[in-house]
Design brief:
The chain has 133 residues and is mainly β. It has helices at 10-18, 73-79, and strands at residues 7-9, 26-28, 34-39, 51-54, 57-61, 87-95, 98-116, 122-132. Helix content is 12%, strand content 45%. Strands 1, 2, 3, 4, 5, 6, 7 and 8 form an 8-stranded mixed β-sheet that branches.
């Protein structure tokens, strides 16, 4: 379906073809069995600290730029993706509008921890550990 390492235009090659929210970092596709996850180094300015913790485990910060994150909407979609028959596909931003496909993942667990929001206020954030399939 997606080629590991290939760069895709987010709007025309992903959302126009499969659906999903064009703005959110977590984009469930309503009519497909996919959830797109987008990561970007620029996320740090909003309190997102996505990173590899080993060669097969990616730590992904949940959605929500302000206030405490909750296990709703996209965050809940990640946690429940297998029960709902959805697959997780991670893309990393390489340029404006362009994302490199990293791979397909599965939810392992999540933690609630302290972080900051876009207003630099302390808050609770959700951090997911995702395993590369």
């Amino acid at each position: 379906m997606f080629e590991k390492g290939k760069i895709y235009h987010r709007q025309s090659e992903l959302h126009d073809k499969y659906g999903g929210n064009r703005q959110s970092g977590i984009a469930p596709c309503a009519n497909e069995d996919m959830i797109f996850l987008f990561t970007s180094p620029a996320g740090k300015e909003h309190g997102y600290e996505d990173s590899w913790i080993d060669e097969k485990t990616f730590r992904y910060t949940g959605e929500g730029q302000y206030g405490n994150m909750e296990l709703i909407r996209g965050n809940l979609a990640i946690k429940n993706h297998r029960e709902k028959g959805k697959r997780l596909f991670l893309f990393e931003k390489v340029n404006s509008g362009y994302y490199k496909f990293i791979g397909e993942f599965k939810y392992c667990n999540h933690i609630n921890t302290k972080g900051i929001d876009s207003d630099e206020q302390t808050r609770q954030i959700i951090v997911f550990d995702l395993k590369l399939i």
